[in-house]
Every structure is written in structure tokens, then in C-alpha cells.
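Module 6 notes. Inverse folding takes a fixed backbone as the condition and produces residue identities as the prediction. Think of it as a translation problem where the source language is geometry and the target language is the twenty amino acids. Below is one complete input and output pair. Work through it position by position during the lab.
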């Protein structure tokens, strides 16, 4: 028995007029092809699960998308696959959808991959080169053991945020202000973007 989620209904209801028919049809096709599908929201977008994540859909200001979670294993030759984040490019009208039989075939393939326990391929990100610390920042940290210890205790990404912020300063005055602020925040144990962190 299919499992529908009221949050998906609410998402469709809030979508733009052009998007509603597309989202309704995509949802219908997923349920028709995979009767055991379970709906949910992931990343605030309607998603479909069957023994793991199958795929999801989303509406934007001028287009919709539908993407299979294991897209790279399923859709290799279609030139539309890189037009948008979905598997079928930008969907603006019902005419942009693949045929019902093609969509059903792809849903069945996604189900098979999940049944077999195949993992989605992960794209490797290039390793970032280490950033050099600006000499003035190093001198300021040498005067505050607490700030230095905080920075050293942060993961590389949090350290990089401070180093980039100070290194990207265009003028000496700006750099000096940023260094002063950074040392103060570090002495309080704060990350560079602490104002935006959830409490």
C-alpha cells in the first residue's frame, strides 16, 4: 500500500501554477510504477523511498525537476541530464516529461538498484591546498594563547574560514580590523560564522 505524506500535498499546493500539474503527474507516475513507495521530505523537497532513497522532485520559480538518487548509474547518454539538478533537465510543461513507459522503466531500475544494495556513486572533491597564515595574523595569535588554542582546535574547514577572511582583505586597514575581530572571537571560542550557527 503506498504511503503518502501530507507535507508533499502542502508542497504541491504552495508551488507556482505552472508547477502543480507537473508535480502531481510526477508523483502519480512514481506511485504507479512503485506501489510500495513511501513519501517523505528530504532537503525540504518531496522525496520517494523504496528500500532506500529512489529520487525526488522540486519546483522552482520557472521550472521543476525530478531526479533519481542513483542518477549516474541510470541516465548516462541523455544530453538533458546536466541542464538542471534533476535527471530530465528543466521541466516547464507536461510535454517535457519522458514518456510514461520510459519513466516507469527508470523507476523500476531505481528499485532494482536499491534492492541489490547498490550505493550511489560519490563524486570526489579536489583536496584544497593548505592556506598560509598571514604574518600579521600569526603575530596577533602569538599574543593570545587562548585564541591560538581555539584556532588550532578547530577542524580544517573552520580554520580555513578565518585564514581566507583575513587573506582576502584588500587593504591593510581592513586586514587589521579583521585580525582584531578574529582574535577576539577566537578568544571567546567562536567560529568565523558563529552568528549563523544554530544554538
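Target side of the pair, the amino acids:
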Amino acid at each position: 500500500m503506498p504511503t503518502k505524506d501530507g507535507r508533499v500535498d502542502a508542497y504541491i499546493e504552495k508551488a507556482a501554477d505552472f508547477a502543480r500539474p507537473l508535480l502531481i503527474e510526477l508523483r502519480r507516475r512514481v506511485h504507479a510504477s512503485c506501489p510500495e513507495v513511501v513519501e517523505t521530505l528530504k532537503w525540504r523537497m518531496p522525496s520517494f523511498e523504496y528500500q532506500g532513497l529512489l529520487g525526488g522532485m522540486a519546483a522552482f520559480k520557472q521550472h521543476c525537476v525530478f531526479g533519481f538518487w542513483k542518477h549516474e548509474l541510470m541516465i548516462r547518454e541523455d544530453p538533458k541530464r546536466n541542464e538542471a539538478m534533476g535527471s530530465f533537465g528543466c521541466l516547464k510543461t507536461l510535454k517535457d516529461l519522458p514518456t510514461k513507459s520510459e519513466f516507469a522503466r527508470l523507476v523500476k531500475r531505481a528499485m532494482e538498484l536499491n534492492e541489490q544494495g547498490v550505493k550511489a556513486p560519490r563524486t570526489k572533491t579536489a583536496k584544497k591546498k593548505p592556506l598560509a597564515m598571514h604574518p600579521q595574523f600569526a603575530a596577533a595569535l602569538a599574543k593570545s594563547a587562548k585564541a591560538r588554542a581555539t584556532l588550532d582546535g578547530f577542524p580544517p574547514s573552520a580554520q580555513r574560514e578565518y585564514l581566507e577572511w583575513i587573506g582576502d582583505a584588500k587593504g591593510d586597514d581592513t586586514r587589521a580590523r579583521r585580525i582584531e575581530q578574529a582574535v577576539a572571537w577566537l578568544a571567546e571560542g567562536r567560529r568565523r560564522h558563529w552568528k549563523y550557527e544554530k544554538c
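Reference fact for the lab report: Residues 138 and 148 are 9 Å apart (CA to CA).
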